[in-house]
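Researcher: Structure for this, please.
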Amino acid sequence: MPTLHAYRDGSGFYSKANLNGRVVTFQLTPAAAQRLSSAGLGDGARLPVKLLLAMIQCGDAFTGTATPTVNPDQGALPFGDEDLDTEGLLPRCEETGGRLDLHLVVLDDGLGGGRKLARLLALEPRHVLRKQTALSVPVAALSRQVLEHLIASGKVPGGTSGVSSLRRWLDHQLSSAWDELAKLRAARQTGLAFDRADELPLG
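Model: Predicted structure, token format:
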């Protein structure tokens, strides 16, 4: 399970998780940090995978870089710790296969006919293709409603594998993880649950 850590200066929290065998550090927005504190979670707490995925989905957890941000001073995750994306929910870059810092990028096909391509790309491919880029939107800034509006308005071509992958990701109702966490906390307070949370279900 991902772990929650407090910054030494007390300015907030970040989370470490196992992603494809690497320890990845996710920064958390102040709003997410406050919400976690209100839920009774503090430094060293174990976060349910579904909860961290929910924060990634809405942009409350982010890396801000194309490659995992590793803080060696904080040590490693326990050996065999579950991968953050065991269920294969996170969308992937269509060039590198990476799952961090993705944008939905609309590209000119370069053939002069005005045809557009929509692809999911990480930072390095975006840089390489920047001259062909007509639109670049962070995946964390997208909702299903916003995506469909962009398609309907003609700004994003539909029917591509990248758009299909993005739809699958956005269709998962991960925000329910917060409600499940609140119920678990209430159960603990009444003595009906163990001191340490089990994994929240992904479904």
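Researcher: Any notable elements?
Model: The longest helix spans residues 176-189. Strands lie at 3-6, 13-19, 22-28, 61-62, 103-108, 116-121, 133-138.
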